[in-house]
Amino acid sequence: MDALFLQQMVNGLTLGSVYGLIAIGYTMVYGIIGMINFAHGEVYMISAYLSAITLALLAFFGLHSFPLLILGTLIITVAITCAYGWVIERVAYKPLRNSTRLAPLISAIGISLILQNYVQLTQGARQQGIPTLLEGAARLDFAGGFVQITYTKIFILLASFIGMGVLTYIIKCTRLGRMCRATQQDRKMASILGINTDRVISYVFVIGAAMAALAGVLITMNYGTFDFYAGFIIGIKAFTAAVLGGIGSLPGAMLGGLILGIAEAQFSSVINSDYKDVFSFALLVVILIFRPQGLLGRPKVTKV
Amino acid sequence: MSAQSSSIDLKKSLLDTLLAGLLALVIFGPIVGVVLDGYSFNFHADRVVWSVAVVMAGRFLVSAFLQTSHGKKFSSRFDLTGSGVTVLPPGYKSNMRWILLLVVLVAAVLPFVANKYILTVVILGLIYVLLGLGLNIVVGLAGLLDLGYVAFYAIGAYGLALGYEHLGLGFWSAIPLAALLAAFAGAILGFPVLRMHGDYLAIVTLGFGEIIRLVLNNWSSLTGGPNGMAVPSPTFLGLEFGRKAKDGGIPFHEFFGIAYNPNLKYIFIYTVLFIVVMTVLYLKHRLTRMPLGRAWEALREDEIACRAMGLNHVLVKLSAFMIGASTAGIAGVFFASYQGFVNPTSFTFFESALILAIVVLGGMGSTVGVVIAAFVLTVVPELLRNFADYRVLLFGVLMVVMMIWKPRGLIRINRIGIAVPEGVAK
Fold this sequence. Notes:
- The complex is a heterodimer of chains A (304) and B (426).
- By secondary structure, chain A is mostly helical.
- Chain A has a domain at 22-228.
- Helix content of chain A is 73%, strand content 5%.
- In chain A, the strands form two sheets. Chain A has a two-stranded antiparallel ribbon with strand order 1-4. Chain A has a two-stranded antiparallel ribbon with strand order 2-3.
- In chain A, helix 2 (40-60) packs parallel to helix 4 (102-123), helix 6 (175-185) crosses helix 8 and helix 9 runs parallel beside helix 11 (276-290).
- The relative contact order of chain A is 0.20.
- With 426 residues, chain B is mostly helical.
- Chain B has two domains: 2-78, no CATH class; 86-416, ABC transporter involved in vitamin B12 uptake, BtuC (Orthogonal Bundle), CATH 1.10.3470.
- Chain B has helices at 10-33, 45-67, 69-76, 96-113, 116-141, 149-167, 171-193, 198-218, 220-223, 252-255, 264-287, 291-301, 303-308, 313-339, 349-362, 367-383, 391-405, and strands at residues 34-37, 40-43, 85-88, 229-230, 341-342, 413-416.
- A two-stranded antiparallel sheet of chain B has the order 1-2.
- The chains are: A mainly alpha (304), B mainly alpha (426).
- Chains A and B meet through helix 2, helix 3, helix 4, strand 1 and helix 9 of A and helix 1, strand 1, helix 7, helix 8 and helix 15 of B.
C-alpha cells in the first residue's frame, strides 16, 4: 500500500506538472482579457500531433541521438504551436474585443470545433503514437517495497519545472513581463502609458501556446498515443487546475496542476480509475462552489 | 482598371497576401502535408500547395475588397455593440399570424403525404427546435452560456428508458417526470454556480455534461453502458401502434377501424411533438413579455445594474436555467421514443455544440430565427450526406464568422414600441 501510494505520488506529480503547463495558458489569458480560452485544449492537441510529425521527420532525416532529437522536436513544435496561438487570437478573438460578453466564448468553441475537425480530416480519426524515446527506469528500494520512476518521467518533471522557471523569469524580470503585468492590472491605463495592449494580448496567447506545446511534447513522450479528441478532456482538467490554484495567478496554475495530478492519480488507484475524469470535473464544481477564488487567487471585485 | 479599383493599394494587398501565405505554410504545412502512418508518415505536398493557395487567394480578395468603397461600407456596418432588440413602431402589425396559420396547415397535411424518411427527418428537426428553444431561453434571453445542455437531454432520454425498465413508466408519464427531473438537475447544478461570474458557468456545465455522459457510459449495471437501453414505443390511451398489440390488447388501427400503417408510430410522435413545440413557442412568447422574461434580458445586458435595482439575480437566472433544462428533458423523451433505444453516443459535447450553433445562427433570443436555424442545421446535413465529414468544421466556421459578423444572430429580437399617450409632454 505504501509503495503504491508513493508510486502514484510520482505518477501524479508528472501528470500534474504537465497539467500545470497547460493551465498557465488558461490563467494568463483569463488574467489579461477575462475570457476562458476554450480552444486552448485543442492547441495542446495540435502540438501533440506536431511533436509526432517533427519526430518522424527528424528521424527520417537521419537524426537519432536522443538529446538532439528531443531538442529539435521541442523547438520546432513550440515555434509552430506559437504560430497557431497567434493566428487563433488574430482571427477569432481580436475582432471581438469590444463585442458582447458571450461572443468570444462562442467564437472559442467554434475554433475548438474547427481545430478538432481539421486534424481529424487531415490526419485521420484513429489513434496516433510515437515510439518510446527514453528507455529504462530508476528503481528506489525501501523497506515496504520499491518505487519505479521511468527516465521519461524524470525528464518530464525536469523539463516542465525548467519551463515554468523560464516563464516566471520572463514575467517577473523582463520588459515583456512587466508589460504583461501592467496590462493585466489595468488595460486602459497601460495603453495610456504607451503599451501596445493589443500586442501584449497577442504575446500572452503565444506564451500560453508555447507552454501548451511543451506539455504536448512531454505528454506524448510519456503516453505515446493521442488522437484528435485528446485536447478536450485535458483542456477541462487544466482549466480545473487553473481554477483550483486561483485563476489569473501563475504560481496558482502550477500548484493547482500538481495538486490535481496527485489527487487524480491517488483517486484512480484507491477508488476507481473509470471515474477519474468524473472525479476531476466534480472537483472543479466543488472548488467553484466553496472557494471560487482558488487557493492563491484574490476574490474578484467588480468595478462599475 | 476602372476608376474605383485604381484606388486600391495593390502593394499593401500583395504584402498581406504574402504574409498570410507564409503563415499558412507554417501552420498548415506540417499537419496537412505530413500524414502520420504508424511511426512513419506519408508526404502530401499537393495538399499543402492547395491550402496555402486558398488562403493566399482569400486574403488577397478580402484585402482588396476592404479597400473598395463597398468594402469600407461593409466593414463599418459590423454591428459589434448594437443593442439587443430592434424596436418597431407602435401599432406595428406583425404578419406572423398568417405565417403561423400556413405552418399549421402544412404541418397538418404532412403526415398524409410524407413517407417514413421525410417524417423522421421532420421529427428530428422538431426535436432540435425544442432543444434550440430551451437553450435559447438560457443563452439567448438570460445570457448564460450552457455548454452541457445535452446533459438535460440525456436525463430526459434515460429517464424514459430507466423509468420503463424499473418503474414501468410509459411515454406519457415520462414527459412531465423528465421535465421535472431535468429542472431539478438544473437547479442542483445551477444554484451554486449562478452566483459567480458567467464564464465559470460555461465550464461547469461543460464538465457536468461530460460527467453525465461518462456515468452513463461506465455504470453498465444500470444503464447498459455503451450498448444502451431499449425504450418502449409510445401508446395512445393505452393503444399500441404495432400491427399486433402485446398481451392480447387491441392495437390502435383496429380500435379506430383504419388500415394498418407502419408509420403510425412516427405520425403519432410527430403530432404530439408538433403540439408540444407549439405550446413551448407560445409559452416562450408570453414569458418574454412577463416581468420574468424582462428580468432575464435585463440581466443579460447588465448584471450589476440589475442587482442595484433589486433583482435577485440568482433566482432570475435559476428560473431561466431550470425552464431551459426542463425543455431539454422533454426533448429527450421524444428523442428516446423516436429512436427506440438510447446510448451515450447521442449525448456527446458535439450535440451541445450543435444546439448552441442553432441558437447562435438563429439569433440570441429570437424565436423565429431558432426555429429556422434548427431546421436548416438538421435537415441540410441530411440532404448533404456526402459532406458529412465537414459538418463539424462548418459549424465551427459558422460560429466564429457569426460572432464576428453578427453576434446577435441573423434574426434579431424585435419588440413593438409603446406609443406615448396624447397629452403627455414628450
